[in-house]
TrEMBL record:
Stated name of the protein: Response regulator transcription factor
Organism: Streptomyces pseudovenezuelae
4-aspartylphosphate modifications at: 53
Domain Response regulatory per the UniProt entry, residue ranges: 4-117
Keywords, sorted A to Z: DNA-binding, Phosphoprotein, Transcription, Transcription regulation, Two-component regulatory system
Every OmpR/PhoB-type domain range: 126-224
Entry-linked InterPro entries: CheY-like_superfamily, OmpR/PhoB-type_DNA-bd, Sig_transdc_resp-reg_receiver, WalR-like, WH-like_DNA-bd_sf
Length: 224
């Protein structure tokens, strides 16, 4: 699948050059000319990485980055004509994954994108995950407790897989939304609903099963 990039840039000539080169390099690119359109792309599309200019006509790219970082860990590369150390430090401290000063070569941009995407990938999980009596076969997409198979929907499977891979670790609703749904723009109630359904299926098993525990104010964990 071609990675989907959001290019938030107000200079048409520069944006068209970037989009053309990036599409030839194997990416899908959605171009937004200002902060409002960029925010719409980030809200409504499944984006793998954002390329964000700081000097936008309707607001600061740094403010858009700050708003994004309050809800998401989407990889972001800032591109800007502002090369002063204070500007670079501000962008990185707010949460940019990389900072490129204009002008730069398109080859360097592609290399930076690949590097950031590699760093943002979650670690590979083992084929079979065991947490107490719970077995999650990630290759067969099956879950069992003491040999009894559970019938799970895809998101229920993904949620239980993530919890079982790190038993006793607490995951926030935002972390679960970002990893499983691909976005933390969803409501935390989405996670709560799936946890409720999973608890019901685990409770129906004839043998004692691991429990999904709510840690008030923090999130959820699996107790084997």
């Amino acid at each position: 699948m071609r990675p989907h990039l959001a290019l938030i840039e107000d200079e048409p000539d520069f944006a068209l050059m970037c989009r053309s080169y990036l599409e030839r390099a194997g990416f899908t690119v959605t171009w937004a000319m200002d902060a409002r359109a960029g925010k719409s792309v980030l809200y409504e599309s499944r984006v793998d990485l954002a390329i964000l200019d700081l000097g936008l006509p309707d607001g600061s790219g740094l403010e858009l980055l700050r708003a994004l970082r309050s809800t998401s860990r989407l990889p972001v590369i800032v591109v800007s004509g502002r090369g002063a150390e204070a500007d670079r430090v501000a962008g990185l401290e707010i949460g940019a994954d990389d900072y490129l000063v204009k002008p730069f070569s398109q080859r360097e941009l592609v290399a930076r994108i690949h590097a950031v995407l590699r760093r943002s990938q979650p670690p590979d999980l083992p084929t079979v995950i065991q947490a107490g009596s719970l077995l999650v076969d990630t290759a067969a997409r099956q879950v069992s407790v003491d040999g009894v198979l559970l019938t799970l929907r895809p998101k229920e499977f993904a949620l239980l897989e993530m919890l079982a891979a790190a038993p006793d670790r607490v995951f926030s609703a935002d972390q679960l939304l970002e990893r499983i749904w691909g976005s933390s723009w969803q409501q935390p109630a989405t996670v709560a609903e799936h946890v409720y359904r999973l608890r019901g299926k685990l409770a129906e098993l004839p043998a004692p099963a691991p429990r999904i525990v709510t840690v008030r104010g923090y999130g959820y964990r699996l107790d084997p």
